[in-house]
Amino acid sequence: MALNIRGFAAQSATTPLAPHSFERREPRSDDVVIDILYCGVCHSDIHQARDEWGGSLYPMVPGHEIIGRVASVGAEVKGFKAGDLVGVGCMVDSCQHCEACHQGLEQYCVEGMVATYNSVDKKDGLPTFGGYSERIVVNDKFVLRIDPRLDAKAAAPLLCAGITTWSPLKHWNIGPGSKVAVVGLGGLGHMGLKFAKALGAEVTLFTRSPSKEEEARRLGADHVVLSTDEAQMKAVARRFDFILDTVPTRHDLNPYLATLALNGTHCLVGLVEPMDPPVHAANVIFGRRSIAGSLIGGIAETQEMLDFCAEHGIVSDVEMIRIQEINEAYERMLRSDVRYRFVIDLASLSDAA
Predict the structure, then answer these.
(1) pTM
(2) Contacts from 346-352 at CB under 8 Å and sequence distance 24+?
(3) How high does pLDDT run on average in the chain?
């Protein structure tokens, strides 16, 4: 029997999110039914709710940083039981048979991963709905274990902001002796600082705001460089092995490329638009530098990150909100008025709108 669910949805690109009732599929034998406790708010939720990337499906229930408790499991599910604390990130299915999936890189599925919301289920063709809701049904292969040592509400953004920064740091083998710079101090950037420091790197924040130095050092930065100061940028020329660029809007990469050491990599995790201004090829050729990109992480890698966070006491810095405050939260995010991630307490769905 299909499940009747309460949530908040965007009905079009121009309407605010509002209460919305919808149906989730009847649970299958390999499904886990999860009562949602908390859901982080990602900048991509705004992009998709407002159709800024194109292809948005309405009504849309956003949310892909989900923490909840298992309500029930299908007959074939072995790894989870009712009462378990679990998480669901940015994807809920993939083809499971392409080269990427066989490598545990479901996010790069050749046939396309099924996103937690604003996507289409591979089996029944129905739209997927996200975590701004009271309950979700997910294939057990895409459910993650949450260690009870973690603060559940502050763990929610690990399912997107966390894994988006963890995956490239691990792929490029960041560890003791690495010199890492993070561009941007926001939802992604603050996690990049925490992870790079915990992995043993020497960590620098690039920022345009001198006022962020104290906060950056609290989060793990050993050094802070004002990217608008030509003298400071020149002082770190050819210094960094790896730059984690979390800025989600168009910006000039050339000054940062000049700070990369021989064989250094500048990795984009925030920008999904054409680069502008153009990259000067000399900044890449003279130093055998690379410009790369990275997208979330596979399920096994996400579990590895969550376990690392439990061992090292790492969570996101969050501000809790009621679901009824979501539209105000979107506007505040656009003003960068949050440190560093909003998280919705889904118990508020029971409150009067």
Answers:
(1) 0.96
(2) 346/36, 346/37, 346/38, 346/39, 346/131, 346/133, 346/134, 347/37, 348/322, 348/323, 348/324, 349/6, 349/7, 349/133, 349/134, 349/323, 351/322, 351/324
(3) 96
